[in-house]
Design a protein that fits this description.
Number of strands: 14
Shape: globular
Largest sheet: 7 strands, mixed
Strand order of the largest sheet: 10-9-8-11-12-14-13
Helix content: 25-40%
Strand content: 25-35%
Number of domains: 2
Structural class: alpha/beta
Distance between the termini: 27 Å
Oligomer: single chain
Order of helices and strands: EHEEHHEHEEEHEHEHEHEHEHEE
Length: 298
Amino acid sequence: MNSSEPSATYRASVAIGDEQAARHVLDVLTEVFFDGEAAVAAFERPDGRWGVTLHFAQSPDQAGLRELIGNAAGTEIAAGIVFDTVEAKDWVKASLEELVPVPAGRFVVHGQHDRARVPDNKLSIEIEAALAFGTGHHGTTRGCLLLLDHVLKAYRLTHVLDLGTGTGVLAIAAAKALRYQVLASDVDAESVRVARENARANGVGDLVKVIRATGFSAPDFPREGPFDLVLANILANPLKQLAGPMSAHLAPGALVILSGLLTPQAAGVIAAYRARGLVPLRHHKIEGWSSLLLRSVN
């Protein structure tokens, strides 16, 4: 994460017996929570059960949510709901713990055990769940990869930055597709180590340069820039705070892909970047999360 000011979203997690039950709960939740009120996802756990997670921009009505899930799956399941907050610095780490193969345009994010399932015509990004500070399973990462795939088809890019890289998924994807060096940064030392390991494991260790930095404070940014593409999958408040510093490191006509924000937060983020001379081109909404593509008109 790349902001000194704290930020958080609220999370509710619950384990459910099987896929059918989880999907029933998911259907109920998506009917109750209208577009953007909550980000809802279901995923298979290593123990064979299914997990359902919800993320909220505001503190949820815990009693109401327990009642809702209790009606859908039983009071015993509802009693097991865990409520917590996800701080900005832990955002990518906490997005989802498990990894299944996730296609996103030309990319497929997967674990080692699913290596053989990746089609030959796709670009493989292998990330082990045990090391995951963020995986392509999460709607924010998938949204970024879909936008990256679109951008790569339409524009020629040579200077790319992945800000708040986490596991390095986005930097690895860009490096594999472009075969140019990509700069990746994170404020967390462990994320820097993991991203470097993942880049080497994916055969682009020589193309992904990972540094530890808060915001744009490191000398590498002016040295490696100006950038014609910046990817930043973090949180809404840090993204707004970074609009000014980021705009100073963009090449004319540069593209910016932003994610990690709930859909109701998108308008505020767009406004912050529009004030810095960036206009929105695309807006993907996946599982209650928004991913934005903007372009500098300065």
